[in-house]
Design a protein that fits this description.
This protein has helices spanning 2-18, 25-47, 60-64, 73-90, 93-109, 116-144, 200-212, 251-257, 269-277, 290-293, 298-307; strands at 154-158, 164-166, 169-172, 175-179, 182-183, 190-193, 196-199, 216-226, 229-242, 249-250, 262-263, 286-288, 316-318. The protein is of the alpha+beta class. The protein has 2 domains: 2-144, no CATH class; 154-318, OB fold (Dihydrolipoamide Acetyltransferase, E2P). Strands 1, 2, 3, 4, 8, 9 and 10 form a 7-stranded mixed beta sheet that branches. It has a two-stranded antiparallel sheet with strand order 5-11. It has a two-stranded antiparallel ribbon with strand order 6-7. Helix 1 (2-18) runs parallel beside helix 5, helix 2 (25-47) packs antiparallel against helix 5 and helix 5 (93-109) runs antiparallel to helix 6 (116-144).
Length: 343
């Protein structure tokens, strides 16, 4: 559907250009209205589509292998990087649509009798159409893997249904970003409140979702690797959020302020202390620090979940009373009373 939308967009541009010919006014108006109709249909199709990629034109290698296109380098690269091409091209569709509207308005201006206005406007229209087609082709080639490009350093976009990945990771512009300066509960980490038990990670993830719902996100990349796992590439970024008419805020700082994450390397120490003092978020429960939980064995995790027990010296969060230690001997329930024998 998305590919069809782009073909309709190009068709609309061509019809706008043709409508500048010195035909009868009713014929020119009909051609222009047809272009406007194609433009509206393209917009409606793309709005309800899965945003499939728009394929770029063939390269020389494809022309040389016209009888076996599946072996061409272009189609093989497109097959491997179709999602990237789609994301790059379709993200600019609104800009292309704006230029198409400008071309349509210029075509209306050229309706004046005589060829002077038509001759003046036509080069502008051709230039805009060429810019759109050239932009689509260039983005398609870059997204497919031809040419070189530097790693993206900044990200921006509205919050979508799949933006929140974990309590400390968000998906933006197709890339997974870790919020800089915080450590949130690990997946499956347990929080306790008396006999009640809950998943800390799910609770923190819901808090992050609520926190940025309806906001626009802007992130600046800090470093490419996670120091806790140097063998795995990971994008770490400072991310801010702002809602229409609201103030901009740092997402990581807000997570610490509300008690759903901890600062690392001394970051947000004051915010974490206040969240603990006011028993905000997970600080109202009892759990261990996420970095300590990640080192727990399966038996230690089960002991904390079932009895609230943890090894001595484990850093904890929230209102944790003195728990039974892991491996501590149980005291007998009905000890035998000691009776002193008479002399």
């Amino acid at each position: 559907m998305a590919s069809l939308a782009f073909f309709l967009l190009i068709g609309a541009l061509l019809m706008f250009m043709v409508s500048t010919r010195q035909w009868a006014l009713w014929m020119r108006g009909g051609v222009w209205a047809g272009g406007l109709l194609l433009l509206m249909v393209a917009w409606l199709l793309l709005g309800s589509s899965e945003r499939d990629p728009e394929l770029a034109t063939a390269l020389a290698d494809l022309a040389a292998k016209w009888n076996r296109p599946g072996e061409s380098l272009l189609l093989r690269m497109l097959d491997s990087n179709g999602a990237t091409v789609s994301r790059m091209i379709l993200s600019l569709f609104d800009i292309f649509l704006f230029f198409a509207v400008v071309v349509g308005v210029l075509a209306l201006v050229a309706f004046r009798p005589g060829e002077e206005m038509e001759k003046a406007i036509r080069p502008i229209m051709i230039g805009m159409i060429g810019a759109i087609v050239g932009g689509v082709f260039a983005l398609g080639m870059v997204g497919t893997g031809f040419g070189t490009s530097k790693e993206r350093q900044a990200y921006a976009g509205p919050v979508a249904r799949d933006t929140v990945h974990t309590a400390e990771q968000i998906m933006l512009n197709g890339d997974l970003l870790r919020l800089r300066g915080i450590d949130a509960p690990e997946p499956g980490q347990v929080c306790r409140l008396g006999a009640r038990v809950q998943d800390c990670s799910d609770e923190a993830k819901r808090a992050l979702t609520r926190m940025i719902d309806g906001a626009y996100i802007m992130c600046a990349l800090e470093r490419p690797r996670d120091p806790r796992d140097p063998d795995r590439l990971e994008r770490v970024a400072t991310c801010n959020a702002v809602r229409p008419g609201g103030d901009e805020f740092n997402i990581a700082r807000r997570m610490v302020e509300e008690g759903y994450a901890l600062g690392v390397d001394g970051a947000y120490a004051a915010e974490a202390a206040e969240a603990t003092a006011r028993a905000r978020g997970l600080a109202a429960w009892c759990t261990v620090r996420p970095d300590a939980w990640a080192k727990f064995t399966a038996a230690q995790k089960a002991a904390f979940r079932d009895r609230g027990a943890y090894p001595p010296g484990t850093p904890v969060i929230g209102t944790c009373g003195p728990p039974p230690r892991v491996g501590a001997p149980k005291r007998p329930q009905n000890p035998t009373p000691v009776v002193n024998a008479p002399d």
